[in-house]
Every structure is written in C-alpha cells, then in structure tokens.
Fold this sequence. Notes:
With 396 residues, the chain is of the alpha/beta class. Helices cover 34% and strands 18% of the residues. The protein contains 12 helices and 14 strands. It has helices spanning 5-14, 16-24, 30-33, 122-137, 162-177, 186-196, 224-231, 246-255, 274-280, 287-290, 301-325, 338-350, and strands at residues 63-70, 85-89, 92-94, 98-100, 110-115, 144-149, 153-159, 205-210, 259-265, 328-332, 353-357, 369-375, 382-384, 388-389. A 6-stranded mixed sheet has the order 7-6-5-8-9-10, sandwiched between helices. Strands 4-11-1-13 form a 4-stranded antiparallel sheet. Strands 3-2-12-14 form a 4-stranded antiparallel sheet. A hairpin with a 2-residue loop joins strand 2 (85-89) and strand 3 (92-94). The chain is globular, with a radius of gyration of 21 Å. The two termini are 17 Å apart. The model is unreliable at 6-26, 46-58 and 283-294 (pLDDT under 50).
Amino acid sequence: MHVDRLLITLLLILATTVHAESQSSPPTDRTKTFGSSLTRDPKQSTSTISEDTETIRVETNLVVSNVLVLNDKGSAILGLTKNDFVVTEDGVSQSVELFANTDGKPVPRSIILIVDYSGSIDPFFARGLAGAKALIGRLGAQDKMAIVTDDVSLICDFTNDRTKLNAAIDSVTRNVKEKKHGNSFQYSALMATLRELIGVEDLRPIIIFQTDGDEAVFLRSPDYKATAKRFWDSPRLWMKERTFSFEDVRDALERSRVTLYNVIPGIRFAGRTGEDLGKAADIDNQEAFFAKGLMWNPKDLKSKQVEIDWRIFTQNRLLELGNLSGGYTEFLQRPEDADEIYTRILKTIDNRYVLGYYPEKKTGEPKRRSVKIEVKGHPEFIVIGRKTYLPAIESP
C-alpha cells in the first residue's frame, strides 16, 4: 500500500525529532553483530530497518540525490529552489517531490565515520581524529553519527550524544598509544556499513572513510594472486582473498543513498605522472610520512617503485568510489591539514541540496540507471552528485 508522498515528505522534513529518537536507540545491540553480513551473498538487500521506524518509512523506490552546485570558479551556488532543477532518469523527465536546502529546515544527516587505525597511517592518526572530533562538535541537533573501525567493529552506534562519540574516538586513540593497531580490513568495514547501517529512511547518509585503502589489493578478482604477489612478496594471514570483489562494493554503494567522502592519509600519487610524480616520491620532502621508513627502504629503488605502484592502485580505487557516490576525495598529506579537511567536508555537506523523485516502476532484473541533474538556464553551473544508481533489491 502506498502512503501519500506529500505526507512522507512532510514527515521526513518536519518530524525530525521522532526520526532521531527512533534511530539513536536501535532495538538490538548492533555492536555485537556488526559484520555478520559479510558472509551473505553480496547482492542481497542492504536494508536492515526495524519495524520501530515504520511511521517514517520511505518507499524503497524513492531516488534521492545530494547535489552540490558550483559556478565556473568553484564557488557553491546557494539559494536555489525546487523549480530551478531539471532531473532526468535514462533520458526521461522526473518530477522532484522531495527538496531541501540549507535555507529551510534541513533533512537530518546520518554520518558514519570509518576509521583506519592500522600502522601504516600512524604519522597522521592523531591529527586525523582531532579533525573528526571537530566534526562531532558541529553536528546539528537532529543529526546522528556512528563510528566504525577497520577491524570491522561498530564502536559507537548512531547517536547525537557527543560525549559517547568522543569517548569512542578516545578508545581508538588509547589502542594506538598502546601499539594496538587495526587490522586493515577497511573495505570489509565499508561493505558491512553499507549493508547493515544504511536504511531506506536515511535521506542524507554520509560516510567519511579515513583510510589508505590497502585492503583493495585483497578483494576477490580473477587475477587476485597476481595482484597480491605484485605488491607483497611474503604471505601473511590477513592477505587471503576476500569473499567480495571491488565490483560488489561498487554495487552496494550504488544501491545506497550514501555520499562517500574519502580522507586518504599520505602523499597523493594517483593522477600524477612524470616529473610531478617524481617530486611526490621524493623521500627528502615527505618527512611526515616517509621519514619513519614505514613502507620502503629509500636505498632500494625497486621497493620504492613497488610502493608507488601500490599507492596508485589503492588511491585510484578510493577515488573511483568517491566520484561514483557524488562525493570526493581529500588527501591528508600533512598531519596539520586535518582540521581544514574536515571543516571543508562539513561545509560541502551543508551546501548540498537534497532532491528526491519516484521513477516509473520498472519490472525485471534491477539495472543501473543514469541520472542527470541540471539547473535551468545555467548550463555553466557544475552539478556534482551521483550520475548512476542501482535500484535497491527488496528483501524476500
């Protein structure tokens, strides 16, 4: 049975207190079961919403886009209205039935911070989490946040309680001080997050993925052994092939409404070539990251080249996911840049418009659909958001 769509929109935008309360106290302790979905078929539904949220449930075919509009100088365009946008799906015009911007009552944000605290990002860890704490301090009254670590642990379920959120981050900091690092299962943590923490009623789900993404090497693929051998010359227990592929992660991301922001600790190698790449790899200029000799021996040019190739591989994967979701990637090249990066991400989130529409119902196997969003009369404006999506798979 379909509920009146206008009523749904009003409930989502106006009844935010009910929304926050129903989500801050989940009916089960997900911190104990988090990660259990990794044993499921990658193509199963990502929805895990309980009956407790039925009063504000959204039809699963609602397509929501969080978009940023920029002028040709890269400045955000604010103050646009619902009637300023033109939305098409697979070339067919769509009617925008959900709209919100920073000028009106905002749609609550569901923010998930995935923290990689493996040894490879030690030099950036403290400042990176300081930036995350600054983000916690700027949560809105109706926002909620959860924190996940790279050992596939949900250390804090959704809450607006800043004390609990800061305590969760402090617990990770203590582990690092005691030389207890994460397992580098960053993609496993991301996959579990997409499957278990993102619900159909979350209209502004946001993931901030602070990681170097090195688990990408071990995701299932036809050439897994060759790829793993290319970057690692000795076997380790955690190097076994994962049960899901990078394509599975892409599909899960496209079925969600998530906007993904990556924060990659370390020097940017992806996209650089020639002399520019040489400068980036100059160990003498990278005291924050390479002075500790975490990765390569500066006297061994072969190991240095393997390190560069590995960084390019893992960074390109993260860049692809960020772009796919309509988000973007920041490079934390100096520890002191963390505050600025997190401030910029939050400002970008604040400047986005939320648009939702109900596409014509289609039968058969869900297929990837193309979305185009433009601003009427302003072809020079750049609209940043997801360009494609996969319809959610209904649970049997």
